[in-house]
Amino acid sequence: MTSPELDRRPIRILIVDDDPMATAGITALLNTAEDLLIVGSRSDGSHVVEAVRQLAPDVVLCDVRMPVMDGVSVVRALRAHAATPAVLMMTAFDEDGRVLDAVAAGAAGFLLKDEDPYRIVNAVRHVAAGDSEFSPRAARQLTQWVQDSRTADARRDAMEKLAQLTAREHEFALALVTGASDAELAAQFFVAETTVKSALAGIKTKWGIRNRTQLAVVVARSGLA
């Protein structure tokens, strides 16, 4: 059984962003939550692997574009190590589709830098708990990026994956692209939240993917959502 002391351990966060103003803003925001602890920050992706070894963060909040080593390379480098924290990508609204590579590499999700503060704080909590996260606004951006970069082969592969699903799984998969949470999907389809979680877990197993953000990319490539 987990001790009460461990249950109360704050979520440890490492911020990676080459913009000092962005780092200061995110730090100030996350410091308002008692269950979150900023353990450090880095302005260059090339220092992240060593920082993770030293600071043992639960979550890495990482900018997409940085000098020397960008966020995509950070995700790939961290995935090569056993004790890997969840990586939540942060990107500007006008960022290009580079974040898709980070999702494919294993990022737990992404948010836009000007998201509602409440959503950013909760996103950190969610990815620390093993979930993935992308907001409705980020979902719209994700869909646009995927549509802009979609090829005929990618669409065909996505359609084949969707054909593997049950009718209920298919409904949940299409609805997920809106950025809805499990609770919101449950309310939309008048089912228990556990039903949604079970269905999404089944989809990820069938498709061999890690998280709901990657699931959303597949659905967006199909052109059906």
From TrEMBL:
<dbReference type="InterPro" id="IPR011006">
    <property type="entry name" value="CheY-like_superfamily"/>
</dbReference>
<dbReference type="InterPro" id="IPR016032">
    <property type="entry name" value="Sig_transdc_resp-reg_C-effctor"/>
</dbReference>
<dbReference type="Pfam" id="PF00196">
    <property type="entry name" value="GerE"/>
</dbReference>
<dbReference type="InterPro" id="IPR001789">
    <property type="entry name" value="Sig_transdc_resp-reg_receiver"/>
</dbReference>
<protein>
    <submittedName>
        <fullName>DNA-binding NarL/FixJ family response regulator</fullName>
    </submittedName>
</protein>
<dbReference type="Pfam" id="PF00072">
    <property type="entry name" value="Response_reg"/>
</dbReference>
<dbReference type="GO" id="GO:0006355">
    <property type="term" value="P:regulation of DNA-templated transcription"/>
</dbReference>
<dbReference type="InterPro" id="IPR000792">
    <property type="entry name" value="Tscrpt_reg_LuxR_C"/>
</dbReference>
<keyword id="KW-0597">Phosphoprotein</keyword>
<dbReference type="InterPro" id="IPR039420">
    <property type="entry name" value="WalR-like"/>
</dbReference>
<dbReference type="InterPro" id="IPR058245">
    <property type="entry name" value="NreC/VraR/RcsB-like_REC"/>
</dbReference>
<feature type="domain" description="HTH luxR-type">
    <location>
        <begin position="158"/>
        <end position="223"/>
    </location>
</feature>
<feature type="domain" description="Response regulatory">
    <location>
        <begin position="12"/>
        <end position="128"/>
    </location>
</feature>
<feature type="modified residue" description="4-aspartylphosphate">
    <location>
        <position position="63"/>
    </location>
</feature>
<dbReference type="GO" id="GO:0000160">
    <property type="term" value="P:phosphorelay signal transduction system"/>
</dbReference>
<keyword id="KW-0805">Transcription regulation</keyword>
<keyword id="KW-0804">Transcription</keyword>
<dbReference type="GO" id="GO:0003677">
    <property type="term" value="F:DNA binding"/>
</dbReference>
<keyword id="KW-0238">DNA-binding</keyword>
